[in-house]
Amino acid sequence: MGARKASAGKDGDRRIGRRALIVGGVAAAAGTAVLARDELGRLWWRVPGVEKPREQGAVDFADARWVAASDANWRRADRPDDYGIDMVIVHVTQGSFDSAVRAFQDPGHKAATHYIVGQDGRVTQMIRELDVAYHAGDRDYNERSVGIEHEGFVDRPQDFTDEMYEASARLTARICARYDIPVDREHIIGHVEVPGTDHTDPGPHWDWDRYMRLVRRARTGTV
């Protein structure tokens, strides 16, 4: 009698153990399914033939006008969810505003920045900030940065006008506020500072001290 009870107890333990494993396995599978569903919910638009909805002509900076770059000059993404943004990279066009727009609309150019700032202070956005622009010449830097072109030539200090500095500073301050980017020279850099680049922009005549003061002032105003 006692032996049977002991045996029944062991069988009961085994049944409880099996039940616990089954229930635990079902719970774990359910949890995995939830995680998988959440992950798929975030990445569904990456399925071939499916595109994430975009509002036509939407801009990320209120003062900008929208002109779309060629699809060949950027990569669709969902930043900062898939790639964190922690940097702004300053470029100079080495040409006119209009020539830069045309270049970024050319699929053969294979490069473009998110924004172009003109000497008169106008701002044109050509790629959404959530997407990866081919502007830095380095994949990691492209994925983690927003690129801003400035109309002019690196060897002509007169090209960097008051209107340009002020408009660009407001734009950079807004970007820094949106992604909580520190306003310092480790996170706001020139194209020349990207590792491995053969570019020299924004060049020796770009006034970094002045620019950073303007960005800090504008950033304080956005808080």
UniProtKB/TrEMBL annotation:
Recorded catalytic activity of this chain's protein: Hydrolyzes the link between N-acetylmuramoyl residues and L-amino acid residues in certain cell-wall glycopeptides
**Domain N-acetylmuramoyl-L-alanine amidase, chain residue ranges per copy:** 74-203
* CDD domains linked to this entry: PGRP (cd06583)
Q: Which Pfam families match?
A: Amidase_2
The molecular function terms of the Gene Ontology recorded here are: N-acetylmuramoyl-L-alanine amidase activity
**Which SMART domains does this one have?**
Ami_2
Q: Which UniProt keywords apply?
A: Cell wall biogenesis/degradation, Hydrolase
Keyword Zinc assigned to the entry: answer is no
Q: What is its EC number?
A: 3.5.1.28
Under InterPro entries, the record lists:
Amidase/PGRP_sf, Amidase_domain, NAMLAA_amidase_2
Name by which UniProt lists this protein = N-acetylmuramoyl-L-alanine amidase
Species this protein is from = Streptomyces fimbriatus
